[in-house]
Amino acid sequence: MSRHYPDWEIEGKDWPNRTVSDFVEADGYRWHVQVMGPDKSDAPVCVLLHGTGAATHSWRDIIPLLARQYKVVAMDLPGHGFTRARAHRQVSLPGMAKSVGMLLEELDAEPALIVGHSAGAAIGAQLLLDNEWDMPLVGFTPALMPFPGLAAKLFPQLAMMLFINPFVPRIFARLARGPGETRKFLKRSTGSDIDAAGVEYYKRLFSRAGHCDGAIRMMANWRLETLRDRLDKITAPVLLLHAAGDKAIPENSIRQAAARIPGCTLREIQNLGHLAHEEDRAQAAAIITEFAPPSS
């Protein structure tokens, strides 16, 4: 495999929860998937969807906590971490949700609960709408609304320019290898101060141009206008969580999304940033199980 991409035997050699990792073919992707939890066939399935630029490591300490009660299914999203497409393809929000749905079908894992972080929450909402599902959705620092004003016009074009320039992912990857650069980038862009292990996993991913390219491809084709206009069609219970120290998603954006979703619960988490679920895993797991206690 090209060293532009994270290698399972190098970057993944001590990957969190590696013992429950597997590689599954679905919809033209070779997915890196982690499944943990009760062996009984009627155990409720909790699906975890990470945000742009992350991978399964984002849920590393939450997976074992939730696996006490749920069969937890987490995956690296297309172009991220160790999930690879068989051929280059564009990645849109509806397309990614469709691909995740096909993976879940291949795994015979019908969700009882969906938990998404940032862009992962948008994928979760898209899954609910496209499949007419009514299971609960929990969104940590969710990215559900288009960027406001001028940014709405400039951001997609900027991401597209980065995408078509093959040198940009390599430049970013080279910068990420510098001492302390990944921690500074995460703190500056998210407002979160995560532990050294978490920083190391992000550094491994950011240091590979293929992973950076996957994140840029996702941003270049990410449009939230249609999802925004369909939020009022969601019939499932939804909990959205705003972190007071989040530097990535404005509070007003989350409030606007919550106002569009019928019966949505909005909650604020104090003293944490955009990666709140990584900063305080115990609190994140408790929030999830309190909102959607398993029925089996």
Task: Give an overview of the whole structure.
There is one protein chain. The protein has helices at 62-66, 93-106, 119-131, 149-164, 167-176, 181-190, 196-206, 209-220, 225-230, 251-260, 276-279, 281-291; strands at residues 21-26, 29-36, 45-49, 71-75, 84-85, 111-117, 137-140, 238-243, 265-269. It has 296 residues and is an alpha/beta fold. Strands 1, 2, 3, 4, 5, 6, 7, 8 and 9 form a nine-stranded mixed β-sheet that branches. Helix 2 (93-106) packs across helix 3, helix 4 crosses helix 8 and helix 5 (167-176) crosses helix 8. The protein is globular. The model is unreliable at 149-154 and 157-168 (pLDDT under 50).
Short description:
This protein has helices at residues 62-66, 93-106, 119-131, 149-164, 167-176, 181-190, 196-206, 209-220, 225-230, 251-260, 276-279, 281-291, and strands at 21-26, 29-36, 45-49, 71-75, 84-85, 111-117, 137-140, 238-243, 265-269. The protein is an alpha/beta fold.
